[in-house]
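In practice, a research group might receive sequence data for several interacting partners and want a quick structural hypothesis before committing to experiments. The following worked case mirrors that situation: the sequences arrive first, and a predicted assembly follows.
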Amino acid sequence: MTNIKKISRALQWIFGLYLISSPLASLFFWVLSTFVPLKQTFMGNLFDQGMFEITVRALGKSYSLYGQDFSWNARFLGLLGDFAHDIFKWIAAFYVICLMKLYATGNLFSQKHAFYFKRIGQSLLFYGTFGLVAGDSILGIAVTFDNPVGQRLLSIGFGTPNVEMIVVSLMIILVGWVMLEGFKLRAEQELTI
Amino acid sequence: MPLIINLDVMLAKRKMKLQDLASQVGITPQNLSVLKTGRAKAIRFSTLEALCRVLECQPGDILAYEDVPDSFL
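A structural hypothesis for the assembly, expressed as tokens:
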């Protein structure tokens, strides 16, 4: 098997694992940790040692959520916020898996490749514009939902991480467009006798 | 497509097979089949010249133009 096939298969597995574990991790933290306190698990040790962090950004700062106790309403909002934050990343990961499937079968250049690149770029663009903003806003409400009235926080921010993600996503969309134009040129050349 | 390819007509007139014509012109039978079935997007002058030389004909014997009016569907 050629290198590209081997690496593509490995990346399929890695992104597939991410696609499954990321929503499960959110579900575990916001819902299941009520029944299995995080501090008493192996993961709890890792959090205590600072190897893992769960944070929410509000008012330009990051606040750690580890060890916090939330009501069910706050947990539901937190889960919603996490999903809103990550759903476009999961869509991008799905399209990366589709792209790797093509490379794994030895198909290196086709219209489908260009389509998947475009979709990955669009997903990351939506992540940078809506996902980050909506997710962080909802998470900000979630973590302060249990506070007394007057001490709850709604913060809507758009900063450097958003701009960086938008720039990267536009670059990926550009690569997809170039690939599509290249494919059209190749198809035309193939049909030139 | 308004351009009509009469290659099969010329092949019949010269009693020649597609594979033989392709080998004499210097292109693959698959490529020539693309032209014969009207799927070609472009043809090089060098290929057209070779076809006319082998088939002993004019370009107009191989290519014809027919204006197709827009259909109302």
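Before designing any experiment, note the following. Residues 111-144 of chain A form the longest helix (34 residues). Chain A has one domain: 2-191.
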